[in-house]
Amino acid sequence: MSQGKPDHITDQHLIHFGTIVQCFARHEVLIQEIMAAVSGADVTSIRLLTSGLDFTEKQDALFNLLRHRAVPLDRIEQIRTYLQMPRTYTALRNDITHSTWAEGRPQNAVRPIWLTHGPLTALKPVHDIGKGGKEFIEDYEDQVTYTLDDLQEIGGNLARNYAEFRAYVTKVGLTSAAAA
Q: Cα separations (Å) of 141 from 9, 96, 113, 131?
């Protein structure tokens, strides 16, 4: 498959990309607000301290802080549950922000261009760095090709997750309504 033409990325794709990236930013801001509330610091200080961290690192910092504060375990687990969805889409968010995109299959689908080099049906890792890692990743192209409907659904799911997450942490006092 060729690298495709840039015009395969429509305004609608860009709108969905923007929605996904903005939803991640909102989750990150909420993580910082929780860190401020739990630590007693102001939000600006927490934002300055965590500005160089990516989503996963901010999430790790939050859970490191929560482990050392008097936050009930059920609240920590609920926060972990809310952050699982965006974490699932971190690779997509990274591809949106760090890759150019080309047409994919089916029609109106797109995929990151980094997939155009080398075999797409099976990628063999050079090193097995994880326990129980797979020898081959089958049908990898299917896992990183997104239709307009897929992107819209992911953006909608992330937006709903954020709204529910914000409502929960406000309700249990882990952030202030004024910070919203």
A: 17, 16, 11, 24
Q: What pLDDT score does 22 carry?
A: 97
Establish if 174 belongs to a structural domain: yes
25 within domain boundaries = yes
pLDDT band at 144 (very low <50, low <70, confident <90, very high): confident
What total of structural domains would you count in the chain? 1
pTM of the model: 0.79
Q: Domain of 54?
A: 6-179
Q: Is residue 1 one of the residues assigned to a domain? A: no
